[in-house]
Amino acid sequence: xxxIIDKLERATGKILVFTHENPDADGIGSMLGLYRxxxxxxxxxxxxxxxxxxxxxxxxxxxxxxxxxQGKDQYDLAILVDAAGVFRAGTDVNAKEFIRIDHHIGxxxxxxxxxxxxxxxxxxxxxxxxxxxxxxxLIDKEIAxxxxxxLITDTGSFRHNNVDDRAFDxxxxxxxxxxxxxxxxxxxxxxxxxxxxxxxxxxLSTLELYENGKIASLIIERKTLEKCNAKEEETExxxxxxxxxxGVEVAFIMIQKEDLETWRVSLRGKGNVxxxxxxxxxxxxxxxxxxxxxxxxxxxxxxxxxIERITEELKKTNFALQNV
Length: 324
Ligand SMILES: [Mn+2]
Fold this sequence. Notes:
Elements: H1 3-10, E1 14-18, H2 25-40, E2 44-49, E3 66-68, E4 74-81, E5 94-102, E6 115-116, H3 123-135, H4 141-154, H5 165-176, H6 181-189, H7 194-204, E7 208-210, E8 215-220, H8 222-227, H9 239-243, E9 250-256, E10 262-269, H10 275-281, E11 285-286, E12 290-296, H11 299-322
Parallel strand pairs: 1-2, 1-4, 2-3, 4-5, 5-6, 8-9
Antiparallel strand pairs: 7-8, 9-10, 10-12, 11-12
Helix pairs in contact: 2-3, 2-4, 3-4, 4-5, 4-6, 10-11
The chain binds manganese (II) ion.
């Protein structure tokens, strides 16, 4: 038996399932799917995260049962999903023991029950496999909906380079279990708010290209968010418009934080440049085609630093190509 299943089967204390701050659909889908399954198993389980639920995910089953993560709550066992370490929770977590279920490379390890597969298309994929192995009959339409949602969002609707036959096998399994692909796609992709589209319009007007069109940048300042009456979570996916331009190898978006001096940077690649190298240079992390970091400084200065670093990575690629 897989160690983590054996461990959870035996667990009798208070269990927490939690995910990272600025949560995405894979983090929340993983958390809710596992939470509902453990509840059905009769476990004393809670799920919590630091930030409010992104409105776009309000359709997920069990969404109203998510608590606000607070350091003062004490747990016997805390299961972190879709994050490289407890530090990603954005707040203190009090537990006697931690387990990590994730697909990010590197990060913190808590022991032999950690279940990490860096080749998995999503964390919901890993959780679906575990639950299937543990007790397939307990996977209902609600759990399947949570897990399928993480699978389609983390794979960019089965378009990213993390997609292989396993992703489609899992999609088939979850659809058989009741996940409705058309309904979920509609809920996730076709409910844009007017404020989001207005913000997109403003954001696209900041588009700039560098290095003969190989690098593309977008910038969102705090005042633009305010002008459009939009929240930061509405910027999800904007960077992909810059990435989608023919010839662009690396696209990035800089989003100004509340303190006005920190920029949250999302980087996207197309397979030729490992954008994780760029993010990790600035203390961040992620995957080969999608990574992020935070940089402090003035707008132009931060942008120049990023462009310089990306140009370095591009050179490596050109050099590698010339030597083939
Ligand atoms: Mn993920």
